[in-house]
Design brief:
Shape: globular
CATH topology of one domain: Helicase, Ruva Protein, domain 3
Strand order of the largest sheet: 4-6-7-3-5
Number of strands: 7
CATH architecture of one domain: Orthogonal Bundle
CATH superfamily of one domain: Bacterial muramidase
Number of helices: 14
Order of helices and strands: HHHHHHHEHHEHHEEHEEEHH
Structural class: alpha+beta
Length: 333
């Protein structure tokens, strides 16, 4: 077989594969439109008109296929988020939104620094809310990313519902390549379930209204089981190697208090009867450090299912609080 014939065959295979994928995506999209029409009463022609304006973004497919930050060792991951500029901006954000953060802390029991930490990690206090049209992101991932198509079709469904409920133009809202939105980067289902109108102006705006973003983050934490004035996580010392049996996969709290002593975990913390905990190992440039997590740390991981992410939020929040308290007296707080 000549080289030219091989090239022709390969090009033909690519053409038919692309045609097949496009056909499959079109069928999935049509089924989705039909579902939205029958289940929720959307107008078919209006939805078809929206899809005619949508694009399939190669940059989104490329971005979602990149290795996640959670693959990094802790000492490298930490440097992405624990920076002096992010701490300084967090203090400024706290001063600018002091009253609403104070209200959220009182109403929901979530410390102000944790709310500020979340918004700081997610979008640098609104500096990086995402530039993709959410409709395009969800269209691309729901029908052209088979690996997680079911999840993103569900989020697309939630997105169309929330835009109808809030009176938003579905083609105008911007977000991340995965369709996360606003200062706190809520996906559509989180917006519908946890976002709140914290300033009571009749609109839930997590893009441009810090009040609503602050209240929504606090509400999210409470709805996931945040415990007011309870510990989050503490560094511990280890003795021997029995502790290794406690380093299980996952984020669920799976260590009982009696197991700590039996496994050589040394901690000065006071534990509640029957409390469940989680031991984490964080990789440093030289050696490792060990932290014992309580329920509130687990709640932070509900925002992003990563122990690295939750630790970044926790440590950033602590540093912001330390600097804020240094400036609070001069600001009259």
């Amino acid at each position: 077989m000549t080289k030219e014939k091989i090239i022709v065959i390969l090009l033909s295979l690519t053409f038919f594969q692309t045609a097949f994928c496009n056909t499959d995506a079109g069928q999935s999209r049509d089924a989705f439109i039909q579902k939205m029409e029958k289940k929720y009463g959307f107008d078919r022609s209006s939805l078809e008109g929206l899809f005619e304006q949508a694009i399939v973004s190669k940059s989104i497919l490329k971005a979602i296929s990149r290795p996640a930050e959670k693959k990094l060792p802790w000492y490298k991951y930490r440097n992405i988020f624990i920076q002096q500029k992010r701490i300084n901006e967090g203090v400024s954000f706290w001063h600018e939104n002091y009253e609403k953060l104070k209200q959220a802390e009182k109403q929901f029991g979530v410390p102000a620094e944790i709310i500020v930490g979340i918004i700081g990690v997610e979008t640098f206090y609104g500096g990086n809310k995402g530039s993709y049209r959410v409709f395009d992101a969800l269209n691309t991932l729901a029908f052209h990313y088979p690996k997680r198509a079911a999840f993103f079709r569900s989020e697309f469904e939630q997105y169309l519902l929330l835009t109808r409920e809030q009176g938003f133009d579905p083609m105008l809202l911007k977000g991340s390549y995965a369709g996360a939105m606003g200062l706190p980067q809520f996906i559509s289902s989180s917006y519908r379930h946890y976002a709140i109108d914290f300033d009571e102006d009749g609109i839930i705006d997590i893009w441009n209204n810090p009040d609503d973003a602050i209240g929504s983050v606090a509400n999210y934490f409470v709805e996931h089981g945040w415990q007011k004035e309870k510990p989050i996580i503490a560094k511990v010392k280890i003795k021997g190697d029995k502790y290794k049996k406690l380093l299980t996969n996952g984020l669920e709290l799976d260590v009982s208090v009696p197991e700590l002593k039996d496994s050589g975990i040394i901690s000065n913390a006071i534990f509640e009867q029957g409390e469940k905990l989680k031991l984490f190992e964080y990789e440093l440039e030289k050696g490792n450090e060990y932290w014992l997590a309580h329920k509130n740390f687990y709640v932070i991981t509900r925002y992003n299912h990563s122990a690295l992410y939750a630790m970044a939020v926790y440590q950033l929040a602590k540093l912001i609080k330390e600097k804020f308290e240094q400036t609070a007296q001069s600001s009259g707080y």
